[in-house]
Design the sequence.
């Protein structure tokens, strides 16, 4: 266990932009070491100022290659960029093969870019549960922009909307008909849709379908209208690439929209609301299981549920009444 | 706590032989560890990645005869940055005569051709 003096020193180094300190603090937060609450308390005042860009979409759609180009664009604008890439953990072994970083290799030796791969560690929703905290650490490190790339998502991995200021959905041609495009879930959370691999056959048809689906959405006056940008993120020659500048401009425009309409306040409110709920949930569960430890009651409760004598809702109610809510004595 | 051992696997320099590194990466993953797979990289990029990803182990793979130059360079760069707690291991076609030189240069272990996956995994998981 690290002494709190060491942790304080690491946090000071983090504030000065030290990458090794950032890495070590991220590991502590990811591993949920006993001091991770202390770490978060100390860094929190230095956070909240970065622009957070979320990138989601199916596996193989081109999230990482688009991320690579966006890092380049932000660097050209003189901004520092933190990148978080999430890949799945194995449900069987708990291990993970984190392979997104390889697409970002031209930025490995750039002092203005910090990249961290996270395994989802059993968390559903396209992110890992540590993602919120890791973003805060990168903010405290002084990153201007933080790109969060979710794991290859399907239709409902939409946690990113609670975190990102701007959400980009990466789609590819031939992903289904216009009804797919109108379904609820992941299509709804996008501020910008990148129709990647738009040099493939069927791209025009997919573009029209996406535009149609977006055009029938009812928007309030002045509300951001999500847009589709055809992109090509891989090419042997620079001129083979397509839509990268447009994508970067759309992000800037969306940021301007958030600030001029004060929608950014709502985004920030929702981010903290989500964060608060998560911390509550984790901490409450931890406290209660800690309180039950050694009493044998947890086992008894579980067995009584299996035997049909009890159910999870009654057990939780009973425990909360016993341990947490001190009712007034009559 | 949800701890995991983290490992960077890279092919040293321009080495084109990919299968060994991928098989080892997969075995380490299946043993419950988190592998950051890098493909071909030079020592500077490998070390910088190891720092940003806060790994316990750097696994290098080479079959092209560059091991005596590039593998010690990885260790040297780590030491230069004051890092002593990341293990560097090497796999591939390494002539037995070179192993003492590599170990003297700070390579923690060398796994030549024919090394069992089990042995590699055991070494890496004992790194914590």
Sequence:
């Amino acid at each position: 266990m690290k002494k709190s003096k060491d942790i304080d020193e690491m946090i000071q180094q983090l504030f000065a932009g030290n990458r090794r300190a950032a890495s070590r603090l991220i590991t502590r937060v990811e591993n949920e070491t006993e001091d991770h609450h202390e770490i978060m308390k100390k860094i929190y005042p230095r956070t909240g100022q970065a622009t957070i860009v979320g990138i989601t979409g199916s596996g193989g759609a081109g999230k990482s290659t688009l991320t690579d180009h966006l890092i380049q664009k932000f660097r050209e604008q003189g901004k520092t960029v933190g990148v978080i890439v999430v890949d799945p953990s194995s449900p069987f072994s708990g291990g993970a093969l984190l392979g997104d970083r390889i697409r970002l290799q031209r930025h490995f030796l750039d002092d203005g870019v910090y990249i961290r791969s996270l395994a989802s560690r059993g968390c559903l929703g396209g992110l890992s549960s540590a993602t919120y905290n890791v973003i805060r650490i990168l903010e405290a490190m002084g990153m201007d922009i933080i790109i969060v790339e979710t794991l290859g998502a399907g239709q409902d991995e939409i946690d990113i909307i609670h975190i990102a200021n701007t959400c980009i959905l990466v789609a590819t041609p031939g992903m289904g008909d216009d009804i797919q495009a109108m379904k609820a879930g992941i299509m709804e959370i996008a501020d910008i849709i990148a129709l990647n691999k738009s040099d493939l056959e069927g791209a025009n048809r997919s573009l029209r379908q996406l535009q149609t689906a977006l055009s029938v959405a009812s928007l309030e006056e002045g509300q951001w209208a999500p847009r589709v940008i055809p992109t090509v993120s891989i090419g042997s020659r620079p001129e083979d690439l397509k839509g990268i500048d447009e994508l970067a401009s759309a992000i800037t425009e969306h940021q301007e929209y958030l600030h001029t309409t004060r929608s950014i306040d709502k985004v920030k409110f929702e981010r903290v609301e989500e964060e608060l709920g998560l911390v509550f949930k984790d901490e409450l569960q931890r406290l209660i299981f800690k309180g039950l430890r050694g009493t044998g009651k947890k086992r008894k409760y579980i067995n009584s549920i299996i035997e049909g004598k009890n159910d999870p809702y009654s057990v939780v109610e009973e425990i909360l009444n016993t341990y947490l809510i001190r009712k007034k004595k009559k | 706590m949800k701890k995991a051992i983290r490992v960077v696997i890279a092919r040293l320099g321009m080495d084109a032989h990919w299968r060994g590194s991928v098989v080892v990466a997969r075995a380490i993953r299946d043993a419950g560890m988190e592998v950051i797979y890098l493909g071909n990289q030079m020592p500077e990029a490998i070390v910088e990645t190891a720092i940003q990803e806060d790994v316990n182990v750097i696994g290098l793979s080479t079959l092209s005869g560059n091991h005596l130059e590039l593998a010690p360079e990885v260790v040297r760069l780590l030491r230069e940055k004051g890092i002593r707690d990341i293990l560097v291991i090497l796999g591939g076609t390494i002539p037995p005569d070179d192993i003492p030189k590599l170990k003297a240069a700070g390579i923690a272990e060398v796994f030549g051709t024919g090394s069992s996956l089990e042995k590699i995994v055991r070494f890496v998981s004992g790194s914590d």
Residues 193 and 228 of chain A are 5 Å apart (CA to CA).
